[in-house]
Structure prediction request, 365 residues.
Amino acid sequence: MDSSKDLEVHLRDQTLRKDVATRAKKRPGIVLRALRKLILMSRRSANSYRIIRKFATQDILQRAQTSVAARLLEDGDDATRVELACFLNALSLGADGREYISVGGNQETYDNLVIAMVRLLQNEGKCTPMIRENILGAFQKLSLRRRVQSILNSINFLDYLHGLLENTEGLSESTIEYATALLMNLCLRTEGRRQCLTIKSRTLAILNELMEHESIQIKTYVNGALYSLFSEPVFREDARELGMEDMLDYMRNNSSDGLGKQLEYVLEELNTLPHKAKGSHLDEISEEGEEADQDADDESDVAQAIGADEFYYEQGEELGGLELLKAVYLTENSNTKQSDEIQSSSMVSDLQFLETSCCWDDKIL
Prediction:
């Protein structure tokens, strides 16, 4: 059995929640950074989903009663906003985290965090490239849920995505990938496609440009977006006028088997009769029934759930990361030699495991 399985049991939940909510400068960000590292490091021990569930169950952001996270995004210092964006991206790796972010809290605070995330993206004075990448990364995963799709479509978030993707110069590949995937997910819904219809020339021009991106993942999301949009007759007509049929056919014949098969489906949708368009049924799946959101084995998002560089905090004598969790947030019984001596030994092993096998974290996060 993996010794990291009981790691999160020893954290002081109440103290963590208090320090995340404090208005003391830097403290919330330092704590959030430590918790994010715990999630990402635990990917090596297949324990991150359990830790994400723990954070959601214990309401680490106090969504049940207050608007701590929304307040920190709007009024926190620069470093805290960065760390919270990174934490939300990491938390959204798990289905329980996505549930917690999207619907956690009481009726009055259901949507305020999502809206606060959008407002931060749109605030050029506060939204740094690191914040933008991580908020979009969180939204990309959150948009697997119908509720988040509905919220973002209700405020025409697609307009923001169009503005971002029209000029990708200076954007990281991860940012482009997140934004393209989010565009695809929002276009699964009727409302998303309707919004794109009002700016169909911009939409097709953006996707036409992204089709030639070197990233296979971005091309996959472009293919998914086109498949959905081609369920609309107007999009099919405009695409043919732009010569996209010839381009798609050329790319199909010069792509790998996986991309080639995707492009074959896109071409079939482009050339289908109006009453037989398969993409028109996608909304039925997205609108009706239960949420199909669940944890996946794919860890491709983990490397992209990146965090702030160490320079955001001139720590000096201040502790951070796992050292902070060990020194401040472990329960007292995790260090006693009573009947739980075996558990305490396991705790030491957990920390040693995280520090040795996951030392790569400080290099990229």
Summary: The first helix runs from residue 13 to 21.
